[in-house]
Q: What sequence folds into this?
């Protein structure tokens, strides 16, 4: 069973992922993954921090052309399983809210869940594998 310190650190990891994404910080976003981490999104697998950073940088660059801004990822119902061996799995729901540029209305842009494999390396938790599973696909065609 995970100890309370590891659980809190993993909760922090999930929050850092969302904040980096929403703030448009590709570097911080990529650092939530382990060096050889995998990001399963949009029907493809992106491997390693460099490729993940490049994907996020492209997404950030494309944001001004989207009909909405101010993305906010909200996660909930995080379930963690693991032991004291530095390996864990996590699942949680996500909802991505955005503000429409034309009306200012807040709307759900995408929703689904994350299915994760986590590992603790050099005292810090990171995503070894993050799978994005969508229930609502998103207007932009992409979701992080």
A:
């Amino acid at each position: 069973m995970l100890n309370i310190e590891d659980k809190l650190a993993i909760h922090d990891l999930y929050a850092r992922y969302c904040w980096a994404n929403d703030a448009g910080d590709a570097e911080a976003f990529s650092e939530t993954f382990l060096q050889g981490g995998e990001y399963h999104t949009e029907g493809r697998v992106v491997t390693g921090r460099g490729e993940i950073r490049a994907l996020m940088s492209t997404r950030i660059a494309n944001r001004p052309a989207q009909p909405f801004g101010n993305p906010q990822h909200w996660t909930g119902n995080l379930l963690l399983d693991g032991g004291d061996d530095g390996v864990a799995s996590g699942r949680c729901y996500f909802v991505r809210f955005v503000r429409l540029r034309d009306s200012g209305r807040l709307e759900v842009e995408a929703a689904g869940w994350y299915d994760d494999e986590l590992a603790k390396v050099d005292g810090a938790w990171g995503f070894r594998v993050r799978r994005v599973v969508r229930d609502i696909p998103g207007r932009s065609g992409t979701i992080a």
The domain at 4-136 is CATH 3.10.450.50 (Nuclear Transport Factor 2; Chain: A,). Residues 4-23 form the longest helix (20 residues). The mean pLDDT is 94.
